[in-house]
Amino acid sequence: MLRRAILATAAAAAALFGAGQPAKAGATLDAIRARGQLVCGIHTGIAGFATPDARGVWQGFDVDFCRGLAVALFNDPNKVRFSPLSSSTRFTALGSGEVDVLFRTSTETMLRDVTLGLRAITPNFYDGHGFMVRANANIAKASDMAGATICLIQGTTNEMVTADYFRSQNLQFSPVLFERTDQAAAALQAGRCDSFGTDASQLAAIRSAMPNPSDWTILTERFSKEPYGPYVRRGDDEWYDVVRWYVNAVIQAEESGVTSQNVDEVKRTTTNPDTRRLLGVTPELGQSLKLDPNWVVNIVKAIGNYGEIYERHMGPRTPVGLARGPNELWTRGGLLYALPMR
Q: 277: Cβ–Cβ under 8 A, 6 or more apart, which residues?
């Protein structure tokens, strides 16, 4: 029933977006420049990815990717308006033109890419579905949760992943669906659920914000591939190209050893042809996207390379405390890999 409901929702969304597609080729980039501001869809609030600080200023991994894109377009990280969106409204908001791009903990899947009138760009964070339980619950693995009540976020891939797992094990469970992550976390702490099922990075973020994080355990098993990445509307190749190669540039900067501290020196001294292209010494990359030749230099100065962004918001020295793992560069055993920028 859950799978059929998700497919029906996807089909309805596809009909909606296909009937009223607001973008044509080039329209999004032109509209953003005319407006003088990028509108970026983000999470309603989860540690590490997107949360307002004490002054109400949004901070996080996804937030910095939004700011970096604003730098690519305007050379100004402040020329972005953040639109917090729930899991169930994020794709509708993008499809209707409410936001220009989603950087919002959104798994890139085939059905989302081909049925919603949207395009998944390229992964910028690799994750997997997991479960969090009370540390004293005597639960070591997911199969110990037969008959459990599990908190889930409506409109996420985690609904299907959880249902598929329990069905495959011939186990019963009771889902309790919530609109927002904070609602599910509160229900878990109040004892309404035995477990919370969502992506491991989000479980770590949720646990870090709890009054007593040590009271909770994230089970070591992973039950899915959850590659997060940005989404844009289908049918605007120019805007798709800008966002796609922007993400690759942030990753490539780390691969090339370019940081916020050394970018000017590397640009001045490098003899590596790929790095010279990346940093605009030869201007063809920026020109191909109708961007300033120094677009990557400006981005790295403002937000850093991929590793700097990750360590600032998700790394071991943060409350979230996640090692790079699959989000390490491919040269260091991870999955992160920039497409050739030439």
A: 284, 285, 341, 342
